[in-house]
Amino acid sequence: QMSNSSSLKEFLLLAFADTRELQLLHFSLSLGIYLAALLGNGLIITAVTCDHRLHTPMYFFLLNLSILDLGSISTTVPKSMANSLWDTRAISYLGCAAQVFLLLFLLSAECSLLTVMAYDRFIAICKPLHYGALTGGKACVKMAAAAWGSGFLYAVLHTANTFSIPLCQGNVVEQFFCELPQILKLFCSDAYLREVGVIVVSACLGFGCFIFIVLSYMQIFTVVLRIPSEQGRHKAFSMCLPHLSVVSLFVSTGIFAYLKPPSISSPVLDPVVAVLYVVVPPTLNPLIYSLRNKELKEAL
């Protein structure tokens, strides 16, 4: 038991398996998933960068999404794989703080970016004549920069807040990476209010983004359903469907991870839920975007 954070040198993460065979199986599965995420997102980044036909606001935002996805899966999975391979559970104090910071940064930036992407679809479908003026070159870059910047500020605030509190409950993190709610459980009793604060702020930000996206799509669908030709309706829907799928995946896994009642929290369930929101979206997003997208397929 460590009484304060200044003397704490490392945290112990949750091990996925205790026998060598299972550790190696976990390593192999994680490696497969990680390589799939690297390949999928890497291909999208390359295609959008190299093909001038894809130099449009929609693909610019998709490029940003792929970079965020690559970042978020690289923050958690490689460390977990290394721990399985070397049969250890340790992560340094600074390494843990870095994981908390990067995950908060990348996930909150992704939330903001998905909101910006909804706005982009809204302009494209509801105000097509103004599309060039409202989302042209600089406006695009500004919106993406705002998403990244807001994520950065949010992460700095929470990480500084979290790691300034003394720890009383040891150094064992019940998760395969340094997840904020799990770290907060190790703090002294008065940290409970901070935990509530963190969750309230996160929920408000997430809820704000979600409401904006829902309102955008309500207007989009109102306009789409008025399109007389079936082909036009189909084209408009296929423009929105990938983004809507990605948002649903991101929101549903995030809500379940952070707002599930403590009564169903368990050492078995928590890592599974974490995999859902940290590993699944970055791996599936490239697939979701490229399956129905002719331009992207041609570029690839």
TrEMBL record:
<dbReference type="GO" id="GO:0005886">
    <property type="term" value="C:plasma membrane"/>
</dbReference>
<feature type="transmembrane region" description="Helical">
    <location>
        <begin position="90"/>
        <end position="119"/>
    </location>
</feature>
<protein>
    <recommendedName>
        <fullName>Olfactory receptor</fullName>
    </recommendedName>
</protein>
<keyword id="KW-0675">Receptor</keyword>
<feature type="transmembrane region" description="Helical">
    <location>
        <begin position="24"/>
        <end position="47"/>
    </location>
</feature>
<dbReference type="GO" id="GO:0004930">
    <property type="term" value="F:G protein-coupled receptor activity"/>
</dbReference>
<comment type="similarity">
    <text>Belongs to the G-protein coupled receptor 1 family.</text>
</comment>
<feature type="transmembrane region" description="Helical">
    <location>
        <begin position="59"/>
        <end position="78"/>
    </location>
</feature>
<feature type="domain" description="G-protein coupled receptors family 1 profile">
    <location>
        <begin position="40"/>
        <end position="289"/>
    </location>
</feature>
<dbReference type="InterPro" id="IPR000725">
    <property type="entry name" value="Olfact_rcpt"/>
</dbReference>
<keyword id="KW-0297">G-protein coupled receptor</keyword>
<keyword id="KW-0812">Transmembrane</keyword>
<dbReference type="InterPro" id="IPR000276">
    <property type="entry name" value="GPCR_Rhodpsn"/>
</dbReference>
<keyword id="KW-0807">Transducer</keyword>
<feature type="transmembrane region" description="Helical">
    <location>
        <begin position="196"/>
        <end position="224"/>
    </location>
</feature>
<keyword id="KW-0716">Sensory transduction</keyword>
<dbReference type="InterPro" id="IPR050516">
    <property type="entry name" value="Olfactory_GPCR"/>
</dbReference>
<comment type="function">
    <text>Odorant receptor.</text>
</comment>
<dbReference type="Pfam" id="PF13853">
    <property type="entry name" value="7tm_4"/>
</dbReference>
<keyword id="KW-1133">Transmembrane helix</keyword>
<feature type="transmembrane region" description="Helical">
    <location>
        <begin position="139"/>
        <end position="157"/>
    </location>
</feature>
<feature type="transmembrane region" description="Helical">
    <location>
        <begin position="271"/>
        <end position="291"/>
    </location>
</feature>
<keyword id="KW-0472">Membrane</keyword>
<keyword id="KW-0552">Olfaction</keyword>
<dbReference type="GO" id="GO:0004984">
    <property type="term" value="F:olfactory receptor activity"/>
</dbReference>
<keyword id="KW-1003">Cell membrane</keyword>
<feature type="transmembrane region" description="Helical">
    <location>
        <begin position="236"/>
        <end position="259"/>
    </location>
</feature>
<dbReference type="InterPro" id="IPR017452">
    <property type="entry name" value="GPCR_Rhodpsn_7TM"/>
</dbReference>
